[in-house]
Write a structure and sequence with these properties.
heterodimer; A: alpha+beta; Alpha-Beta Plaits; 2 domains; 5-stranded antiparallel β-sheet; 4-stranded antiparallel β-sheet; 4 helices; 31% helix; 42% strand; B: alpha/beta; Rossmann fold; 3 domains; 23 helices; 18 strands; 36% helix
Chain lengths: 159, 562
């Protein structure tokens, strides 16, 4: 199944390869990985989405924890989280399709961030399912280019 | 000292930091980028031992560490020097041996420009080091050295590499930063669940057919005393891995011997038949389980005690898991174990004794056999003697027949199985324990992978004794070709072997040839009593086989015994 791991790591050169190397050595493809500095500039947070059976992911998690550069590993799978992904999508438009494409963007609450003669670029945030749904909806009109950040996630706070 | 020269040279700061960590000897080999360091070494109290190949420096540091329990330190130059230590790093990583490996690197300004003797050694060794550092600022050296030693020796030990660019070593007038460690992410796993000890005690009181299974974690933790106490208190039979040889002294009535591919019949039957397996500091390696984790000790409740949480449930599904230091955990078990909960093992021992009697290891006394040589060595060598071995048939015969009484008296390459380990490891062992007798048991294939280190022995006048079991072939490969490939022998003949006695003599050593059983005792005795290094060349038959043998992929009860 899909697992989402939140990994706090040292903000140093070479850290990413140590983390990625662990997955590669076990033959696991990382579905998505985002990384950026956190509220503490010495610490970066990686959100890693990976597909694998629970026992192996548990092993990988333990191995990640053992890396000296890794401060903590949390498996967010099954936890109550807010997760988001950002996508930039370039779509082909013609006189006939322009309005229906723009309507679709509206429905998904996307924003047009660039407009050319024959295409538009849309910014969309949401969970993975929403972005997948949008991509499927506009694909028939001409999907020219798709850039996705991969998932970021944060635990919901207790109320 | 002039006023403007307040600081020290980078290389001096490094050596001071190493000295601070208690380093008394470094095994090394110089090269271009290390010139500032070798210059500074002349003024350091740390002894430098020059090997003959960088493979030798890392194995020597490894041997030093295994027999002393201290962190071994070695030094190699950039490029080929660094790549030559890679196998040794993998060896230490495989067997969880604490090393600090220092490699030279090109100057920081040249990094990544494919300059002369430049390799990305951090990148190359990433999967086989516990951690690694590229030093970019000499002021960080005290902290990095302190962290490297701490990481190498704590938790599950392992090799840590420090890559040292030439300009970092050469920089003058450096005022270092404090050595305070910054290791937020480094965790040493300890035990935090007392209830598990009670579960172990209960399992012990409920069982009828227990086996205690001891590995390298016992050696690391210094838990051999606790193993012995527990074995004696609860009358537990003990099996060991190759890493765990000596966890219970050879000849102890509770010891069943080594388990696994070349283990004793009794040990393998016992593990297969037991109802409680207490695994301490082991990782259920495929040389023990035949790669059949799911069919290993299937009738048993399995307790796994290990310091590394990654090992828990990695190969074998276990019932009680305790993450922690083997010695501390066993001592807690001992404390919590009242005399009345000692398991009822009388029947079990009756069965084990029958197996022991029916399947005792044996060999032919009428011809010169390797087993005879090793047993004789065991009779003549004192209890503190250190044995190092290479890899192959001789290694297994040594594990089966040499009476190891303490795990730190035995150094061999287990997980990686690296031929060429034994001779340099013997050098390292002799430096760690200069007053003890060091004996290398080796074969003619393995010896030639590090034979240049005879020069290191000669230069340092080390009184190492070499027991060469010379069959003129790569014996283990040949045995497998005979057994599993219909006798189609391929590339195992070592034609062109030198006269090893003459080689030894050329290095100023005493060389002795032995080719009949009646010469064995005299030759070994002469070697032990000779004040300098000796090589005894025993000519044995290439048809001598290591038995028992569990064929790969077969269950451990399916042994070939003759």
């Amino acid at each position: 199944m899909l697992h989402t791991l939140a990994v706090l790591v040292e903000n140093h050169p070479g850290v990413l390869i140590r983390v990625a190397g662990l997955f590669a050595r076990r033959g696991y493809n990382i579905d998505s990985l985002t990384v950026c500095q956190t509220e503490d500039p010495e610490v970066s947070r990686m959100t890693i989405v990976v597909n694998g059976d629970d026992q192996v992911i548990e092993q990988v998690r333990n191995q990640l924890s053992k890396l000296v550069v890794v401060h903590s590993v949390t498996d967010l799978t099954g936890e109550s989280v807010v997760d988001r992904e950002l996508a930039l999508i370039r779509i082909e438009v013609s006189a006939e399709t322009r309005s229906v494409v723009l309507q679709t963007v509206e429905v998904f609450r996307g924003r047009v961030v660039d407009m050319g003669r024959s295409n538009i670029t849309v910014e969309l945030t949401g969970d993975i399912a929403k972005i997948d749904a949008f991509v499927n909806a506009i694909r028939p009109y001409g999907l020219l280019e798709l850039v996705r950040t991969g998932k970021i996630a944060i635990l919901r706070s207790e109320v | 000292m002039s006023e403007e020269k307040k600081g020290l040279k980078g290389a001096t700061i490094l050596l001071n930091a190493l000295h601070q960590e208690g380093v008394d000897v470094i095994f090394g080999y110089p090269g271009g980028v290390l010139l500032p360091l070798y210059d500074a070494l002349l003024d350091s109290p740390i002894r430098h031992v020059l090997a003959r190949h960088e493979q030798g420096v890392v194995y020597a540091a490894d041997g030093y560490s295994r027999v002393s329990g201290k962190v071994g330190v070695c030094l190699a130059t950039s490029g080929p020097g660094a790549t030559n230590v890679v196998t040794g790093i993998a060896n230490a990583y495989s067997d969880s041996i604490p090393l600090v490996v220092l490699t030279g690197q090109v100057s920081t300004s040249s990094l990544g420009s494919d300059s002369f003797q430049e390799v990305d050694i951090i990148g190359i060794t990433m999967p086989i080091t516990k951690h690694s550092y590229l030093v970019k600022d000499p002021r960080d050296l005290p902290r990095i050295v302190k962290e490297a030693f701490y990481i190498a020796r704590t938790g599950r030990p392992g090799p840590v590499l420090i890559d040292l660019p030439k300009d970092v070593l050469a920089k003058e007038n450096v005022e270092p930063f404090p050595s305070d460690m910054k290791l937020k992410g480094y965790k040493v796993f300890g035990r935090d669940n007392n209830s598990k000890i009670e579960e172990v005690v209960k399992a012990l009181s409920d069982c009828k057919k227990p086996v205690l299974y001891a590995g390298g974690g016992v050696v690391t933790a210094g838990a051999e005393g606790a193993i012995r106490q527990l074995a004696e208190k609860a009358d537990l039979p003990v099996v060991t891995t190759l890493m765990g040889v000596g966890s219970l002294p050879f000849g102890h009535p509770n010891l069943l011997g080594m388990v696994g591919m070349h283990g004793t019949v009794t040990a393998n039957y016992a593990v297969d038949d037991c109802d409680l397996l207490i695994a301490v500091g082991v990782r259920f390696d495929d040389r023990v389980t035949s790669g059949l984790g799911h069919r290993f000790a299937t009738k048993a409740k399995v307790i796994h005690i290990d310091i590394d949480p990654v090992e828990i449930s990695k190969v074998v599904k276990t019932n009680i898991q305790i993450v922690g230091d083997a010695r501390k955990v066993l001592e807690e078990v001992l404390e919590s174990l009242p005399d009345s909960t000692v398991p009822q093992v009388t029947e079990w021992w009756t069965r084990l004794r029958v197996w022991k009697k029916d399947h005792a290891l044996s060999y032919d006394l009428n011809r010169l056999t390797p087993q005879m040589v090793i047993e004789c060595l065991g009779e003549l060598a004192s209890e503190n003697t250190i044995i190092t071995t290479d890899v192959g048939q001789h290694q297994m015969w040594a594990a089966q027949y040499y009476p190891t009484t303490h795990p730190r008296n035995y150094a061999t390459s287990c997980g990686l199985g690296a031929m060429g380990y034994g001779l340099p490891a013997a050098v390292g062992a002799q430096f760690a324990r200069p007053d003890d007798l060091v004996v290398l048991i080796t074969g003619d294939g393995s010896l030639q992978m590090s034979i240049q280190e005879l020069g290191t022995i000669a230069q340092n006048k080390l009184p190492i004794k070499i027991i060469l079991l010379n069959n003129g072939v790569l014996g283990m490969v040949r045995q497998w070709q005979k057994t599993f490939y219909e006798g189609r022998l391929s590339s195992i003949q070592l034609e062109g072997n030198p006269d090893f006695v003459k080689v030894a003599e050329a290095y100023g050593m005493l060389g002795i040839n032995v080719d009949s059983p009646d010469q064995v005792r005299t030759a070994i005795s002469q070697a032990i009593n000779h004040p300098g290094p000796v090589l005894v060349n025993f000519t044995i038959s290439p048809d001598e086989a290591v038995l028992p043998l569990v064929p790969p992929g077969k269950e451990i009860t399916e042994m070939i015994v003759r």
